[in-house]
Amino acid sequence: MKAKAIIEVVVFLDSLKTIGIFLLDEGMYQIRINLYIQSSQNLKIPLTPKETLLFKRNEQQYLPQHTIDNFYMSDAFLLRQWTEEERFEIKNGCRFSGAIPHNLKEQPCFMEIELMYYDLAQKIVSFQSISIAKFKIENLSNGIYEYVPVILGEDHFSLLNIMVICSLTSFDIQLQQVQNEDKKGADQHLHINMRQLYNKVLEPLKTSYRNMQTFYYNMELEMERPSSSGGMQYHVRQTKNFQVMSLSSADSLLKNEQNTQLISKVMANEFKVLQSTINQLWHKIIIGLKLGHQKILRQLKKESLTNFQSRYSAFTQKEVIPVVDHQYTMIPQQQKQSQEQADLQSKRLEYQKLLLQGPSKIVDLKIIDEIKDKLMIVEKHYVTRQTFQLSRSKLHLIVLVHGYQGHSYDMRLLENYMCLRFPQHMLLVSLCNQQNTEGDILQMGKYLSDEIKNYIATWSYTDKLVISFIGHSLGGLIIRAALPYLDFEFHTFLTLGTPHLGNVTNQRPLIKFGMWFFQKLKKSLSLSQLNCYDDTLLKLSQFPGLNKFKHIILFGSQQDHYVNSESSLLMKVSGIENEQQHNEMATNILRQLHQNEVLRISIDYKFYDGDFDTFLGRKAHIAILESHFLNQYIIYNLGDYFK
């Protein structure tokens, strides 16, 4: 028996939201989508766009949605440089369909989404691709009903909100003909065909139907619920259910070869009825999407947040440590560290498999390429009895500060993700020190405080707000130096590879020589202070301000040779050179945090390319600024700390 699975996919494009609109050139834009199954021999089997779907009429229809070959093109929308719009309503969709050989049914499907651009100055209308996002879709035939946030371009950085609904709807079956056989042989051959029909066709269709039925019933519940109510609950209604042959009854019938002719008729009828029922239900779902797409999309967004958190939690080892008598754990002994590293190494591949085994079956390929078996995250939560709640009525300002010899652009990826996750918050990316990170750390802190005050006075409608800070490397120290000058309510303080305790315990000769060389070459006061050639960091450790934060989040990495994890994670040490100076600063800082929730996050990287940045340890120091996975981990798994 030969069978081809008929796969149906509906892609609904809701809206495109741009961040930094002036980075997009004036002109016409549209979205292009194609889907295909890729075999193990890299043979691409396209899913053909069968029908364009209009969910809302576009008043300014410059170029309507259409299909070209195996590509779907959305409505075109016009962007002018002087426009203040940051969100473009698209409300288009397309139904794709494809007949997939049964042996490729379990192969992943790939979805490519492109942002196309046409320059109005050109006489000939020709759209060019300026950004592309690729997704891998697993278990397509079981049914997928998901909201997918599509990030298009790092420079343009636009968020395309789409909804993907797909299901197995039928099979194209060809039974093998029997020639020149007696009746007994023909019956045996038919019996084999019937068993294959059940295992390869009826069982997958039943699974697809059950998943489709659950989604449809809950879609109806959501559409009937008033808009102001909560999300839909996944409870299937008590309605008449379509009955299909059970596996046990089919097996019992199939074992009796005398009933082969009768069974073939019964199973053929089961297939026709099941196929007809699935097609009817599929068309009802499409009609329901047209009528209630906003409610359905809103609920799927809520579910996707949980799915994202589950996905990134799969790469995280989490430990909750109560703080007793205001004492924070010292750094583990070397033997314990080695054991932890061995445990992480053994679990890398295990967690890699979990990436596509979570609730979400649609994964961005750039996330897969970033992770593979390259990293693990270790969270250690130090909690006190005191709990904090943010006043929901207050405006929230998030300040991002770059590091040594850095630029505001270094924080752009995290800034963009923060804008998408928290559109109601104000964001300030510090500019005041980007030309002067060689100066005095304490003075740079004063410059930052003045910049924050001026920003609030210029852009905020109230001074009754709360402030959270995110600092990379030296930026974390600059933030601490600014705190005494700021009389505001603080919420979360997050640092990424910040040398809170300087570099006095850095035992790597190459790094120590490099810092000494740059200090002499550039006459850098800040590098001199980081090496504790004066008492600046000791004074800074006594500065007030950290105690005003509800949450302290510290990122560090053993592979970061620029900044020791003992310094970035604020951990005391023992048995090494300069430990007294290091521990004195640590004690001064930790003494302030007796009522704070402290979260130490250690990222364990494994880099396979032996380039010079990896050798120096710089790659681990800047990886978090360039990693989509880690930035998404911050906004999804740590997002509650910034609400």
Instruction: State the fourth-level CATH superfamily of the largest domain.
Output: Alpha/Beta hydrolase fold, catalytic domain
Beta strands, count: 20
Q: What's the total helix number? A: 16
What is the CATH-assigned architecture of the largest domain? 3-Layer(aba) Sandwich
CATH names the topology of the largest domain as Rossmann fold
- Gross geometry: elongated
Q: Provide the helix percentage.
A: 25-40%
Domain unit count: 2
Let me know the largest β-sheet. 12 strands, antiparallel
Q: Which regions contain 5 or more consecutive residues with pLDDT less than 50?
A: 228-248, 329-339, 348-356
Give the terminus-to-terminus CA distance.
57 Å
> What is the radius of gyration computed over CA atoms, rounded to a whole number of angstroms?
29 Å
Strand content: 25-35%
Question: What is the averaged pLDDT score?
Answer: 79
Under CATH at level 1, the class of the largest domain stands as Alpha Beta
Structural class: alpha/beta
